[in-house]
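Sequence and structure are kept together here, with a separate record for every protein. A complete record is shown below as an example:
=====
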Amino acid sequence: MQKASRHDGWRGIFSKNTILLIKAYNFQFLVMKNLVTILLFLEFAFAQAANTDIQKQFEASKYMYSTFAKLEKQLLSLPTKESFSTKKLDNLSYGLHFKVDVGDVFFPTKDFWCSDTLAAWCKDYIERMKNAFFIPYTLSVEFKKNIGKCPIGTIYEKVFLVNADKATSIDTPQRLKNDRIFRDESFSSLNEIETYECWAIIEMGHQNQPIIQKTPRKETLYLNGPQNDVPGSFNPLTESWMASWPVGGRFNLMYEPLITYNTLNGQIEPLLGTLVEELSNNDSIVVDLNPAAKWSDGKPVTSVDVTFIFLRGSINSTEQISAIHIDSLKGADGIITERLSFMVAKNRRNNPLTVRDMLQSTRIAPSHVFEPLIAKKGIDEIKKIKMDVNPIVSGPYNLMSYDSSRITLKRRDDYWGNKALHHGKRPAPKYIVHPILKSAGDVFSTIRDNAVDVTMGFIDHFSRMQSFGIRSWFDSLPYHYPTTIPILIINVTKPPLDNTVFRRAMATAIEYERINQFALKTQTSDLEPGLIIPHGLEKKYAQKSHMGLYGIKTSFDDYKKRKDKVQEMLLSIGIQSIWNYDGTLSHMEWRGERIPTIKITSVKGWTEWETIVSLAVNSMRWAGIDVQENFVDGGQYWPDMGLGNFDLIMHKPAADASSSLPWRRFNEVMSSQDWQPLGAWASVNIGRYNNPASTNYRPEVDSLLKIIPLLKNEQDRIDAYGKLNMIFMVDQPAIPLVYLPEQFYYFNDKIWKNWPTQKNPYAPPQIPGLGSGTNILWHIYSK
């Protein structure tokens, strides 16, 4: 299950002693969230400024002042404390002064400012908004003390322009928010760099009380991202969603797998064992255990531990592995090495790729600790034990302490791998601390203030934050290395979603550049058609000619052309978009009958997902496709996804990078091997694409998915992936939305030096302890 390691892109932050100050373009945050709802449903009868009824003006103004007074009261109840104060304007309000005078309205003109990237949209927007007008309001904030390069008395001021005419365009507030259409008075008496730094402090809040140091700072590495709630269990046998960092996920700090996968170069690297590539084939994957590997109690790591976790522990490996053969090899020095052959389950999955995945993702646990306990109480009872007191581990660190605010690990100086894998060198940090942050915005403030050294949490507007010394993998855009794709999975059993042309029309309607620009702040590469990422290790499988021939058009040089194309596709299958008198979408019809509104399901509170979905909905509605957001809590999301209780659902298949990509992504989206009807649980192909019992079943999809893992020739794999990607693009059973890194990767090198980057690629862009990124711990050093 995917953990809520959410990077809250647009939400502002309240630290303990600061007021959360509103972003210039951020309406989603706390109090201002209410303002969006109000503005979206204002029943102002303003239609045009010249024809506005005076009485209705008065009533509208009266209603707005009443509403703003309530919002103001909520703002004033928040703690202002030491750092900031809101500027009192005209003795009317504190921080927010709303001007509602008709004389203050702003009319779009041909000189209306638009960024270059939005020029096409702005041209169309201005045309549609000739008769619209806007209500400006002002936010002003003053620094009460010096913070960084922001001197006392610095004033930050924004004037917002919000469309007050519902009759003109109901989606204008959303577009204003996304496109940042506002006048900006900005900071007083500051240069550009200082402006950015002060803007960042206001946006993210100021960390008045840094994380309390319980270990020497220069011996302690602080990281964050994987743990965002109170720690629970450190038991390696428990379900992954219950296990706390660093036992959950693919972290190698306490319990280690046999091998690791380097997401940067595709190489399999040794850990408890070494892959014997020349003996590994489609029949078996061979690994030699490292005879030096030991548990923290001094006992050796042996094949008994490996067979325990794979055959008698908590995982089900029978679909992938039919047996584990063990041989003993005696070296010239007399040392015995155990050789394990993991036999591919020919009568089940027959997939050597997924066997390799299991070997690099499964952490080995000590048989001599767990098997006696299981024999007494049963595995279900043993899974409930926290294993948080002096656990027996094989990794370079062990659990030192934990509470609701942090998890602390301490280095094992007798770690077997120091000598066997790292030339006798110990990891540089003596301690690793994972603070549990209270809000996503603390990601930036903690790494800015040196309270965290490296994070996998998303940092909004990173391009503006580099003046604080924060860096990432690339020095310039897109900053991150793409490996995963958030996708809208389509339930193809429901009309009109069962129509290929309609699915392609939905995909064509989405403005992918906007998603990248406003949800990810362009910190990733632009999306291209298909289910293969045309960058990095997957690039060789992405055939550009196929993308142009079979894929939907992901970018348009004119905003209106996208809408025209979508309308052309809808009309070709008899679907008509019905528009309101004001140009907004009412609904869709087929043969005179109204089509029910299509819902996109996503997890409530995962703010970056909410943003992506809202942007997709905004685009599709503007193009004439009747869709709406359906944000639900996790308790509903996961059952709905497995049972098929959705129209479209936000999902990230193959979230972890591994040697089986891109095959695993295709398998999760398109495989019919485990096809299940609606109401029955499906772990893959949750959209129920390509029903084997239907008349339009495409057997070539499953044939390609079965043969690709067995192909030995690289050109054969390229050809097979090309065919599979072509089918995906033609049938469009899902809609890829944006490329993401496996994890976001930001670091501050004020304390720890020599982080891996594109220019220094000794390890992949991962926080230390994750997969092959664990090697970072032996390369960084403190000043």
